[in-house]
Amino acid sequence: MLSKLALLPLAVPTFAAIHEKLSTLPYGWKESSHSVPDNSTIHLQIALSYSNLDQLESRLKEVSVPGSPQYGQYLDLEEINKLFYPSKESAEVVTDWLKDNGATSISSDGHTIWLETTIELANKMLSANFQLYTDDFEDKLRTSQYSLPDDMIPYVDFVSPTTYFGGPKAHEQADRQEPSTNDDEWEQSCLRLFAVQNRDNQIEEMALLTPTCLQKLYNIGDYQADPRSGSNVGFGNFLNQSTSYSDLEQFEYLFGISPQNFTVTLLNGAIDNQDPEVAMPHEANLDIQSIVSLADGLPIEAYNVGGLAPFIPDLLMPKISKSTNEPFLQFYTHLLSLPNSELPWVITSSYGDHENTVPKYYAKRICNMIGMLGLRGRTVLHVAGDEGVGAVCLANGIDGAAQFTAQFPATCPYVLAIGGTNSFENVEAWNYSSGGFSNYFPRPWYQEDAIQTYLDEHISPEAKDYYTSNKYANFAGRGFPDISGHSESPLFPMVLNGTIRANGGTSAAGPQVAAVFALLNDARFRAGQPAIGFANPWLYANARNSLVDVIRGGSVGCYGTNPQKQQPITGAGIIPYASWNATVGWDPVTGLGYPNFQGMKNNALGR
């Protein structure tokens, strides 16, 4: 039972400028017809400000740029905490403020403070207006703005859930095969015919990609990883998904892969649901089955991340979301709390959201946390998404101007962002591979030459002027993706609740590339070298010639249709001729290209 609030005189805060404010509701959201009593309990979390963030990038350069005297000399948990941990004063000052304002059940790990209060007191404390909003599928309790007292601003990064309406989406392209320009050239040993159940529950025969074919595509050769090398992979399961043990076992048997298990960590109230009558672990299964297809034998860790209810719903409000839909914060907070001995060397996630729906404070917090993982020698991958140039294509603002849609966390400069390719013999860009330029994060140092070359030599002056003058794209922003993996044509076979499904998209590409980096770490560890760590500086400066450049095809978007469902998007921004082309060198469809493991391994080992 929740403890009752004591009847104490509450402090009256003096507010500074508004801390976060939405200029307009995110696309698809509106005020709900439901209401919530003011005395309802709401759960909030407060992210405390990190220290010394001005040193993050310079420290990351020292350990990540090949040739640096400190290259590969990664920090441990104690060193990271000493450098960036929020001051002890932060938790004390903020906790006192919360108590003075009637909050209860206050707890903290030093990075974040969790609390309970009522909606009425939260509104007073934050000068907010919490109410229900709906996208016609679920209701969420949010506020369009909130403020902080002057004396709290130095200690608080942000409060959530407040202005973040979005939730991570799996970038999963299922059951729809894009035509390839060269299907006749496929080696038949790479394909197997399966009776596949599609999304309409109809059975159709499809030729699907095999793990053997993936190994050939990435030039794995006869390389065999050593499970004792220390290399491993971790991935996040969000949206109540759990990876199926029995489906993995069936997948391994189907393709002659040596049986192996995986471990599961449950975070924030998550469960490990293995009931095939209830669970539909599309993304969770796709991730692990993609990984074992290339990095069989290396240890794998699945992190199931649950959500904490922002308030207690009742039977009158059945559609209200029971999750904060902000699992990235929970996920990375947990990872950063682990000692290096328990932290996976490669971490991948196939979830993301439209950058402009993620509050800037939140996005920058997550990005800085990922940068800290890079300082600890970890390679963090996020997929670029499956919307091409964009789908909704609306900028923030009352006028609803059209704009290309960037995807977060792929736009974080400390992430290795993974785009998508199509076909096999003559690989081309997948036309729904998301890519472009961030409106939140500036172009990072390691991309400067690659993007400037693209802008100077590989996009027409007319297109550049058209995109710039209409503010469709921010060419000064961080470009994404960095590299790519196979996403379409042919699709990837996945076992789901005992049946074969066809799957693809960048959700398949991300874990494939993560497996390649796990193999690279395996090779380096066995040679007595440190992990690759934050890979982007190495890729752009040293390893780009060991990637396979993709110069055919391109991406499209912003034509008013959801590319994943092929359904019209009411009110979407329309941008004629919106597209990116795959070009020589880096481009905003496939990045630098896709992995050639043997070439990357030789480069990584200094051969």
TrEMBL record:
Q: State the reactions this protein catalyses.
A: Release of an N-terminal tripeptide from a polypeptide
Q: Where is the Peptidase S53 domain?
A: 208-607
Any one Pfam family match given in the protein's UniProt record, by short name: Peptidase_S8
The cofactor binding remark recorded in the entry reads: Binds 1 Ca(2+) ion per subunit.
Q: Name one GO biological process term.
A: proteolysis
**Where does the record say this protein resides?**
Secreted, Extracellular space
Main enzyme class: hydrolase
* Stretch forming the signal peptide: 1-16
Extract the GO molecular function terms from the UniProt entry: metal ion binding; serine-type endopeptidase activity; tripeptidyl-peptidase activity
Gene Ontology terms: cellular component: extracellular region
* Keywords, comma-separated and alphabetical: Calcium, Glycoprotein, Hydrolase, Metal-binding, Protease, Secreted, Serine protease, Signal, Virulence, Zymogen
- Catalytic residue positions: E283, D287, S507
User: Quick one: which residues bind Ca(2+)?
Assistant: D549, V550, G585, D587
What SUPFAM superfamilies does its record include? Answer: Protease propeptides/inhibitors, Subtilisin-like
**Coiled coil located at which positions?**
none
Required cofactor names? Ca(2+)
Which CDD domains is this protein grouped with? Peptidases_S53, Pro-peptidase_S53
**InterPro entries (alphabetical):** Peptidase_S8/S53_dom, Peptidase_S8/S53_dom_sf, Peptidase_S8_Ser-AS, S53_propep, Sedolisin_dom, Tripeptidyl-peptidase_I
Q: Supply the EC number(s).
A: 3.4.14.10
Protein task: Secreted tripeptidyl-peptidase which degrades proteins at acidic pHs and is involved in virulence.
- This chain belongs to the protein called tripeptidyl-peptidase II
